[in-house]
Structure formats: C-alpha cells, structure tokens
Specification:
Helices cover 37% and strands 19% of the residues. The chain is α/β, with parallel strands linked by helices. The protein starts with a strand and ends in an 11-residue tail after the last strand. The structure holds adenosine monophosphate. The site of adenosine monophosphate has 17 residues, from helix 2 and strand 5.
C-alpha cells in the first residue's frame, strides 16, 4: 500500500493503472477516523474493482464556520493501518493546500436537491462536498466510486453531479452499517459520552418505530413523522433538528407515500453532537437514487 500526498503523483499513478495496465479503479472518499461503515465501502470496492484507492481528507469547505472542522477526529497512522489490513492499494491523503492552493476560486453547486434537509440545516455544506468530490474524481478518474446510504442526501446529490457533469464514474451506494445497539456508525460518535451513546439509540429506535407503522399500512407523512418524533422526545438528552419524509429520488417533500420509495430522515442533537440517520420505506436501499 502506498500513501500519496501529492495530487500530481495520484494522477500519474491512476493514469498508469488505467491506461497501461488496463485495471479498473474503485474509489472510496472519506474524511478518515475510519470505522466499519467506511470499511464496508472498501469491502465492496475490493470485490468489484482491480485496484482500490481510498482518500482521507477532512474537507474544510463542507464545514460551516460554527461547525467542528478543527475538532474533527484525525489519525492517519491508525487509518493507514486499517486500510493496509483491508488490502487497499493506495491512500490519497493530501493537505488542505494541495487541494485548495492559493488563489483557488472555483466551486461546483448542485441546485435544488441541496436546498432541503442537510442543505437547509448546514448552509454551504453541499457546495463543499460537490466541489471536493469533483476535484477528487478528476484526480483519480475511478471506474466506480463508493458512498454510504448513511448520508442519503449526499449520495443522491453525488449521483446528480456525476450525471449532470458526465463523469465517467459509476456511483455505488452501500447500506448503513450500525453498531449492535442500532446506532449508525459515524466518526462523530467519538464525541459521545457513555450516557450520550445510550441516548443516541433513539435515532434508530424512532426510525424502526416509523418503519413498523409503515409495514402496518400507515402512509401519512405526518403520522409516520409523529411516530418517530414521540420516541425521540422521550429522551431528555435528544433535541430534534428535523424529521422529514421525502421522495427518495427527487427529495420532494411528501404528504403521504403512494408509490415509489420514500426517505425518512432525521437530524438530532445528542448534547452538542449532531447525528443523522435515515430509513427507506417502500423500496430496497439499492434502488434509492437510481433515477436521481
Ligand atoms: P465520512 O468519512 O463521514 O465523510 O464518510 C465517508 C463515506 O462513508 C461516506 O460515503 C459515508 O456515507 C460513508 N459512511 C459513513 N458512515 C457510514 C455507515 N455507518 N454505514 C455506511 N456508510 C457510511
């Protein structure tokens, strides 16, 4: 495994793999602090592609001024050890200056899809995401890029970016990996105290409750959301940012689920830590975003 810091080196390695060795490249972008959620993406990439490239880059442009860019967990030595165990071929770990050199002034924006949910709660977040993903895809030019359903809106936005700008990369979305307690794995879980961690189980419990209501025939958005809300409000450490039911392809807000897949997503503060989670109702996760 080689750890690469320079974009020129990454570009020339990837070009050689593609053009001279004719090997397929699978790319997994991450911000590091790796956990089983990331490793599941790497596992899928390993199964589907000849060569696996993982980027580790805490992207400053996707954090708001009051967000946790400085505090975000970073441990490249630990991450590189895990990635070597997973037979990753290349780790791309550039500095901020390498990605955003002096005079950088070009940003990529996906309109519409980014106005709601995480986009509404975190202004400018997706502009940072789509800009860095564009840069990374241009550097690596992978055949496949792997993203997690954990960040459901991000996966939909990236699919739209790739389609609209004709990237020659196929986006693969992998299911959410959870701890035994049901808590979705996240690098931000490291901010949680033991007591917070217990409280954070309400996110998945709320989604499970709403899914059960859906299975029993409930189709009204307000009643599905209410079922989830009641569970979260029963936990004093939890404060709801939003709970929303949206079309799983277009993210249009739904009053009810008629046909097609619906995304029930939420963002909840546990103490100071903001966590997100979601479930898809009425379709398998693999189908989500297929028409985005
Ligand atoms: P991050 O390092 O948080 O930017 O995440 C990198 C990638 O891993 C993104 O595509 C995430 O959606 C994905 N990911 C993060 N947590 C999970 C999880 N629990 N299950 C599946 N994928 C995940």
């Amino acid at each position: 495994m080689e750890v690469i810091n320079r974009r020129k080196r990454m570009m020339s390695v990837a070009r050689k793999l593609r053009q001279e060795e004719n090997r397929t490249i699978g790319f997994v972008p991450t911000m590091g602090a790796l956990h089983e959620g990331h490793l599941s993406l790497i596992h899928e990439a390993r199964a589907l592609c000849d060569v696996v490239v993982v980027s580790v880059f805490v992207n400053p442009t996707q954090f708001g001024p009051a967000e946790d860019f400085k505090a975000y967990p970073r441990d490249l030595t630990r991450d590189a050890g895990l990635l070597a165990e997973y037979n990753v071929d290349y780790v791309f770990a550039p500095t901020v200056e390498e990605i955003y050199p002096d005079g950088f002034s070009t940003y990529v924006t996906v309109e519409g899809l980014t106005d709601k949910l995480e986009g509404a709660a975190r202004r400018g977040h997706f502009r940072g995401v789509t800009t860095v993903v564009t840069i990374l895809l241009n550097i690596v030019r992978p055949d496949f890029a792997f993203f997690g359903q954990k960040d459901a809106q991000q996966a939909i936005v990236i699919k739209r970016l790739v389609r609209d700008l004709s990237f020659k990369t196929e986006v693969v979305v992998a299911p959410i990996v959870r701890e035994e307690s049901g808590l979705a794995m996240s690098s931000r879980n490291s901010y949680l105290s033991d007591e917070d961690r217990r409280a954070a189980q309400v996110l998945n419990q709320a989604l499970t409750k709403a899914s059960a209501a859906y299975s029993e025939g409930e189709r009204s958005a307000s009643r599905l959301i209410e079922a989830a809300r009641a569970i979260i409000e029963s936990e004093p450490r939890a404060k709801i940012d939003y709970i929303s039911l949206n079309d799983a392809d277009t993210l249009e807000t739904l009053d009810r689920i008629d046909d097609g897949a619906a995304l029930l997503s939420l963002a909840v503060f546990i103490g100071k830590t903001r966590l997100i989670d979601n479930v898809v109702l009425g379709a398998t996760e693999k189908q989500v975003g297929a028409n985005a």
